[in-house]
Amino acid sequence: MHTVRNRKRLYKNFDMHLILHLSILIIFVLLVLGCGKKAPPVPPHQAKPPAVNELRASIDASTPKLAWTIPEEKGGIIPSSQ
User: Which residue of 10, 16, 65, 69 is 20 to 30 Å from 34, comparing CA positions?
Assistant: First the structure.
């Protein structure tokens, strides 16, 4: 026979077990949904540097020097050396 005291103890244990099971279920669902392969990895986009034009080399007091021109994005030319 269930007395009031036994019934309270039964409900208290039931509530704790329910909370425990729901917590485990929520954690399991979050782990399953949070892990896994979404898409293949994609390397970061890297813009290629512009091509070097008119490469020139010279030696000045035993130091080699290079000079070249780099085309601008709009078609102009930027002289560069070093």
Answer: 16
